[in-house]
Amino acid sequence: MLDCIFLSIARGWSLYTMSETLAEFKSTYPVILTVDLQWGDMDALSHINNVVYFRYFENVRIAYMGRTSLIGNPACGPVLGTTQAKYRRPLTFPDRIHIGARVTALHEHGCEHEYAIYSETQDALTTFGNARIVIVDARTGRKAALTEGMKAEIETLEGKTFDF
Fold it and tell me: What residue range is the signal peptide (predicted)?
């Protein structure tokens, strides 16, 4: 059975699904990266440093966008508008983690991403994150509209449709 956790974000509350198993986690997020934790990423308290989590989110975000035309488009591209993390349990070396990404909402000028980290050692979700992605016109540096093609690619990857 799935539990839920609510996190406050600038626009209100976001619902994060708590996967009980790795299989549930993998079925929840369409893009997942697997990473072995590095000894050198730990802080003085022997936990993975908080900055490293944002690197994990960045890596899975780029992997997600790489499966769409959001990356490599010379006319426009994604810019990180906001991001945050909720640390539920510390990660420690050694461990293998799975970092998932999905889109939770589409907007005229971008989308909302949700991230989660699943620890094999703890057999549990340890961290949640979210980000607002803004599409920017490469020529003007101003916000650009999310194209119908980009929207369709995201909906195909997510296996659902979005209203915006």
Answer: none
Identify the helix (H) or strand (E) that includes residue 54. helix 50-66
What pLDDT is recorded for position 10? Answer: 41
Is residue 8 predicted with pLDDT exceeding 50? no
d(CA 98, CA 116): 8
Residue 86 in this model has a pLDDT that exceeds 70: yes
Residue 50 neighbours by CB under 8 Å, 6+ apart: 43, 85, 87
List pLDDT tens digits, range 144-155.
999 999 999 999
Q: Which residue has the tokens 């780029």?
A: 62
**Rg, C-alpha atoms of the chain:** 16
d(CA 75, CA 127): 34
Domains and CATH numbers, the chain: 3-32+57-89+97-158 (3.10.129.10)
Instruction: Give the bridge partners for 101, in sequence order.
Output: 31, 115
Pull the structure tokens for residue 162: 């979005």
